[in-house]
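Field reference: sequence -> structure
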Amino acid sequence: MKNKKNTISKWTFALIAMFFIQSCSDKFDDIEGQLNADDLDYSNTENMIQALAGSYNIFATRGWEEPLLLSVRGDDVNAGGLGDQQQFADTDNFVYTQDYWMYNSLWNIHYGDIVGLNTEIGLIENFKSFADESGQATADQYIAEIKVLRAWLHFNLARVWGDVFIIQTTTPDTEIADGPASKDEVMQFISDQMDEAIPLLPNMRPNERTDVPGGVTRYTAYALKAMAQLELENYQGVADTCGAIISSNKFTLYPDFYSLFKKPGELSDESLLEMQFSDYGSSTGDTFYHLYGPFGPQGWTPARANASDGWGFYEPSMKFIKFMLDRDETVRLETSVLWTDRGIAELQADPNYATLPSFVNKTTRDGDIINDYARALFASGKHYLPSVQITTGRNDYGGGKNMIVIRYAEILLMYAEALTRGASGTGMTADQAVNLVRSRAGLGGLSGVTSDQVMDEKFAELAMEWGIRYYDMIRLDNFSELSYDGRTFSADKQLLPYPQAQLDALPTLGGGGN
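Structure field:
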C-alpha cells in the first residue's frame, strides 16, 4: 500500500481555504480545484494568500511511510509489521536495499514538495509585483513562511542521506547538474535561510496567529535554525538560538503530557510547528487526514464502536520501555506505549520487571483495549487518538489528529545540551531547562546536570518523534546505543543508500558522499 502524491506543477496551485478560522479545532479546509497560473489575475493581490494556503497543504500532505522511515532506525522504536514490508524491518536492523520503494518514495515526495513550495513562492512573487507597500511586506512574510517549510524538508533529506541537492527553483536542472551539497552545507544553508526569514515573520506563537492559526512564526524559524546548528555541532549557536525562543517568554509546556498528543493538546502554547488535520467536526463530507493506520495496533476493541484499527508497523522498543521503567517514569511511559498482554508477558519474563505499575495495562485510560496481534508487542501511544475523541460517524484510526513536528520541550533540551557541552546561555540554566521538562513528567529536579543526563531526558521525552533519538546518537557517534536486541550498528550504516532509481536518473548524485 503505497501513498502516491502528485507533484504540483509550476502551472498550478491548490486552492486551500484555511483562513478566517473561528477556533483552533477548525483546520486546513481543502477546496477541490486548481488554477492555471496563466489565468491568474496577479493584480488581485488578496488572492496571494491562496498560494500560502497551498504551501501548508503541501507540507502537511505526507506519505504514511515518511515519518516511519525517518524514525525506525532509533533504539526507541522497532519496525513491527511482522509478515509485511520485510525491507522496512530490514532497515530497522540496518540492512539496506537500495531499490526499496520506501527509500525512493521519501526522496521523491520530499523533493516533489520542495519544488511545489518553490512554485508557490514564484506565484507570490508575481502577486508582489502588483502589490502596494503593505502588500509587498505581506508577500515577504508569506515567502519567509514557505522557506521555513522548505527548510524542514531539506533538513530531513540531509539527515537521511548526507549529501543532497539544495533546490530553490521550480526547474532545478542547473542545481542538479552542480551536484549535491554536503550535509554540513545543507545545514548551513538552512541556518542562513532562517536568519533571512526571522525578521520577516510574525513575532508570536503559532497559536497566536489569527490569519493562519498554527502557522509559521519567527520562533519556528529559530527552532529550525537551532536544529541545523545542532547537526553542525555548533553548540553556542544552538544555545543562542534556543535562548531567543526561551527568552521570548511566549512558550510554556502543555501541563498534561498525555493529552498533548491528542485533541486537547492541539496548537498548544508548546507547539512551534504542527501539521494540522481535520474532518471539520462533521460526520460526513470532506476530510483532511494523515494516514495514522501504520502506527496503530491491529484488532483492538475500541471504546467507541466501529473505530478502525491500525496496521502494526511501529513498535516502541523493549529497550525504551525498560529504560523508562528503570527511571520510574509514569505519564511519559503511559503516553508513549500501548500495551498488549503478550508484550506485558514478554516484559515480565525478565525477573527485573516481574512487577509492573498499574498503568501497564492493555486497556487505555480512555477505555480502548489493545488486544494481542501478531505484528508487534506494543504500539505507539504518541500516534494514538482515543476512539472516543474521533468525530462521531468517522472511523479512521487517529482520524483528524494533528501531528506535532517541533515543540518547546525539544527546544529546552537542545538548549540544556548545548550548555552542558560548553556553550554559554542567558536567562536560564541547563538545570532549569531540564527540570521544567522533568517536572511535567512528575520527576524530581536534577542539580549539576550532565550531557549524558540531558540525552537520557531527550530519550524519555522525545521518543518516537521524527527520529530525534536516532539522529542524536549518530551526531554523537554513540553507536553502541544503536546496537541492541541483536542489532549491530557500525559507522557505515549511518546513512541510507541513495535510491537506485535516483542514481539511474541523476548522474551527478553518484559523485556525492553516500
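Note: The radius of gyration is 22 Å.
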